[in-house]
Amino acid sequence: MHIVVCVKAVPSSTEVKMDPVTHTIVRDGRESVVNPFDAAALEVALAIKDERAATGEGCRVSVLSMGIPATEALLRDGIARGASDALLLSDRAFAGADTLATSYALSCGIRELGSASMSDVAASGAPEHEEATPGPSLPDLILCGKMAVDGDTAQIGPELAGLFDMPCVTDMRELVAIERGRVTVRHATDAGIELVEVPLPAVLTVAKDIAQPRMPSIAGVRAAAGAPVAVLSAARVQADPARSGLAGSPTQVVRSFVPERSDACEVLEGSVPQQAARIIALAEEAGL
Amino acid sequence: MAATSFGPTPTIPAIIKFSSEYDEYRGDESRSRGTAESLSFPRTEDEVRAIVRSLSSARTPITVQGARTGLAAGAVPQGGHVLNLSHMNRPLGLREGNGRFYLRVQPGLVLSELRKYLAAKAFPTEDWDEASLTAAQRLAEAPEQMFPTDPTETSACLGGMAACNASGARSFRYGAMRGHVTALRLVLANGDVVALRRDEVRARGRHLMLKTEGGSTIEADLPTYQMPRAKNASGYYVEDDMDALDLIIGSDGTLGIITELELALMPAPAVVWAASCFFATEDQAVEATIAARADLKHAAALEYFDPAALDVLRRARAQGSAFAALPLLPERFGCCLYVELQAPVEDEAMADLERLGAIVRAAGGSERDSWVARTAVDRETLRFFRHAVPESVNMLIDERRREEPSITKLGSDMSVPDDRLRDVISLYRSTLAEEGLESAAWGHIGNNHLHVNVLPRNAEEYARGKALFARWAKDVAAMGGAVSAEHGVGKLKRDFLTTMYGSEHVREMARLKLAFDPACQLGRGNLFDAALLDEVRREGAAVPEGADAADAGPDAADAGPDASGTGPDAADAGPDTSSADLDAAASPDAAPVPSAAAPADALAKAMNTGEVS
To answer: Among A52, B223, B485, B599, which residue has the fewest nearby CB atoms (within 10 Å)?
Structure first.
């Protein structure tokens, strides 16, 4: 079995600053972390791997991201926690991607992970504490976090499913079973929790609290230090420039801004009619 | 909280009559309770001086409080006045020297606030002078700074931390609080002030002479004992030719009132990694500790959690409490050695982690049975784990107290020299087994300093646990260890002080206290019982001129309960002063504060000749 887990580096702080001129997030060197939803997805994958290892079955867990070169450290950390291999797509050609261009880039990476060369890397460079098995051209499962804490779009998983024409289950709360080429999960819907079964390969997006991400062990950290993390360019994964980065992003950001907050408080005084009149005046001033 | 203010001028701080509204100020984290007749919340040193002066003529006992997070009942009053410094919580200024930054703070500033200021590199600077503002600008451009003393309780205040020479996990690398204070100001019981800066005032051998800002002299012989070769917060710190500043730190509020501290900051480490290494047996963890102490280059903390402690946590986690968010603790995880690494670069941290892996293997453990935290999220998980252990034990005790209200957790705070670690653990295990007492232990194994907690089920076990602690104190002292390594002696452990040093050395300490506080007003019940101080004071010629007025001193508190001896509810028999309004005539201790311009001259004179030896 081959599982690909898509992860995103997000700022570790919730106090995100916006550049007032460029309207982009200020990356001021604060520590980046794996999006917590994606960390939960990795834990789900590693639990599947553990379960299969207990019955003597192989399972390769690949961690995939698109990001700046520093994201490699987060992918290596995924290997320390138990992933088999990792691929980082890093290229200026990917810059400015919206979710459609991002999912396209990730789909290129997923195909690359299924290629013979990447499978070989995974098999040869796998940490000594695990066994890797070469995967087919497409993975059996693609796991994503339900959403990223910095963008909140929740679109990557469904878009990947669309690109690969795979079934997609979002907001998974429990993995019930994987057997006979099908996966059964419970996921949240507006109407409540739904039990569904879909054929593999499939895309699943997971809720943050579905699993407590495991900590890496000393053995894992040591093994990950020497494990290969492929860092590939857009050309190397044969990404179509027209579908990559800004060029491949139909989303047009007109303006982004931090809402102004005010804790100014006006205490209304006078008679009830006077106060009511003041409320009307205030509403009109506010353009309501 | 509305303070009832009274007094002839607005510059005089309020002294509040004690009422049920202030009940929380009768106790601290030790769960001991005391009594008081009045309390105050000064905001400045001048207000402290004015309050102290107003109390000196009646020799009113004064118990200094900070954040009341102490575990030795040092802040629990025994009658008299509670001087609560929690409103003195401002950073006062900053200076730069020798490539380091030094922050002046009021004593009530809590550690968590200090950390926030340092992390943001932003301080409330309204009252700072130009030099401090310039230094603050320099700090803003400098690498992130930290204050290294790290008691687990971050709501502790810095004055309290200095009073008990706090340490915590990272003292393995950085030592205790004493080494990170470079100056302080101390208000004496008569309202005079001693200002001390490191390297400026030293003892000659064991003789100390201090000048006060009021022009008086305090002269005293220092106790003659040798300090243990172990982490220590037991009684006065003394050594030949010592820095006077070091005597005040760890003096448990018995010599004066710390009104200002200067803290030496240092650059925060660039890389902080941590690893919880799990072992099947305690012996393996101890051997790994001894090896880690020798081999690791960047260890900042070596902490231990014993099998019983992990079991309590495992049960709490299984019950679906808040601890359910913790990673699963498999049964094979018998006990845990937590190692924190602080290194300048990742490569060096990695090299130490590899060394740690070898240590774990050599001790018979597995590198796979470990949790490594290299990210903020993982560090938070390990922090949660470390805090969850004592929390879960406290929850267990609270549960038992519902059945048997007289019991409480009994926690030890003893340390031994490095070469006695195996011996002391063997002592704990054999004696606990002999007594058949349930326990859970954790703490600073790198400093051979474990908090062994007896978990009594009933009053009889509680009594046996207390007796066992007395036995441990004796045996630990015989090993060259300390009866209190970081919590201070306060009121709860003062009997152990005699066990550790012997009665004659405790009398030497009492004489030293009397040189600073002739009327025995400060920290009543801390380190010494009233009878001992009375006795020492009456020792013939040792009584200084002018201090005779203090003879009546302890009486005011004699009727008060001894917070150390009668359990957590000892003070329940105390007076209920529920009246919200303060009647100046209601209590001599609650009398209006005299003008700050009218110091107690008599006592000032006494201080001038305060030598007692």
So the answer is: A52
